[in-house]
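hi! just following up on the protien thing from before. the input was this:
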Amino acid sequence: MGSQETTERDAPRAPLGAASLMAACVAILLALAPAGAGAEESADQWLRRSQAARFPARDMRAGFVMYIEQKDGPRLKRRGVALRRTREGELADRLFVVQAPENLKELALLSHDQAGAAAAQWLYMPVYRRARRVSVQAATDAFVGSDFMYVDFGRVRPEAGAHRLKGSTEVEGRPCVVVETVTLDSSLPYRTLLSTLDRENALPLRLEYMDEKGELTRVATIDSIAAIEGWPTPITLSVRTVREGSRSILKLANVDYDVGLDPSLFTVENLEGASKEP
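and the predicted 3d structure came back as:
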């Protein structure tokens, strides 16, 4: 793995016409709320509590830096802004705008959670000045050439799987519960997901994805957390793709809650307009 950062002409692995960390992680990603522990809770209750904990406050804005560490190649860097607006229940809208490198500047991903369905997503490509709908088949493609998938930036969907408790463990001394999910969504690139949730705040500290053969394919982790405006907020998130030997790291900065984001920011019309951020 090289250590040189490259920001010139580093094209994404996936086609830009393609579409959770993480619905399961970033997305997970971007802000999670505290929740009380419950020793007798079921697997479904744990996952729904973790899902509900992802949307503290009415909205959130943060800057992000993403590092992409390839097995054989330079270290790539992307920089931008992430916005999130909570809607009703467990639903939220998210907008990610890339500001650097120059060849990806203004590329943007808009994600709308939907009740009982996968998130509706659009990718704005500045070269065409058009936003294109991300298909279900493309939702597992790489976002800006990273180990994060488009699907990682939608909500976690507890209703889309069968769950059971797998026991208890610790992560960095934090007591956790482990939930096993067998997905019912055939469009996803994994069959089984192990979610290691913090017993105090339900943060998904570790997510392990297995294929049909039970082989580990991806690992997503929350690597650092900070209390911001009273909310335990993931600051550093990472995803490792086992077969490719690559890893992507997402770091948040200048996180701010309840900033009063205009709902019109989270529209396709805004994506195709002149301004994509407040």
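The CA atoms of residues 218 and 241 lie 5 Å apart.
Residues 43-52 form the longest helix (10 residues).
cheers
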